[in-house]
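To close the section, here is one more complete example, presented without commentary so you can practise reading it yourself. The ligand is NAP.
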Amino acid sequence: MIKIIAAVGKNLELGKNGGLIWHLPNDLKFFKSQTVGCMVAMGRNTYNSLPKKLPGRKHLVITDVDDFNKSVDDVDIFYNMEDMLKEIKKHSENEDVFIIGGASIYRQFVPFADELILTEVDAEAPDADVYFPVFDKAQYVREVVASNEDNGIKYEHVRYVRK
Ligand SMILES: NC(=O)c1ccc[n+]([C@@H]2O[C@H](COP(=O)([O-])OP(=O)(O)OC[C@H]3O[C@@H](n4cnc5c(N)ncnc54)[C@H](OP(=O)(O)O)[C@@H]3O)[C@@H](O)[C@H]2O)c1
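Output:
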């Protein structure tokens, strides 16, 4: 299956200044529990924002930059959406492949995702500069998987499964 995973604010806020908005250690643990052992696909900005490669996960990175990081272990580079999608579809027949952002990648992949796993944060961030795309909730069954909290910030792990 192709699964999108993201943490969003009340207005679908995703990030600011190239990084995340809220520091949510328990959500990072949840992200790890969902994605470990799987392929994770991302845009170049999100790849660059990682403090280090995510252990135990094969990275697929999309960029327009010709000579970007060609020789890093566990990182495959794609230069257009068609090639990346082909690779993702090949693997997603037998395993879960996660789309992990950022905004431009979520926009392009929502139509192809079987499931959206959203951490819905009960907070707003007026200074956000990237947003998750508005999607048609009527096309999905919504299930709250768990409630969580970090430093007084409440959030829910929600699964949207395409009908
Ligand atoms: N809240 C969350 O769950 C979450 C998750 C992930 C990221 N984020 C946040 O989202 C922000 C990053 O998002 P973003 O939208 O700025 O960047 P992004 O989606 O991570 O990466 C965008 C880059 O990907 C490449 N790209 C995208 N589509 C392409 C295509 N069709 N063909 C070739 N290259 C393509 C381009 O790279 P080049 O410029 O190299 O050509 C583009 O500049 C950060 O603030 C990050 O912290 C939040």
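Once you have examined the tokens, check your reading against these statements. The chain has one domain: 2-162. Residues 4 and 106 are 7 Å apart (CA to CA).
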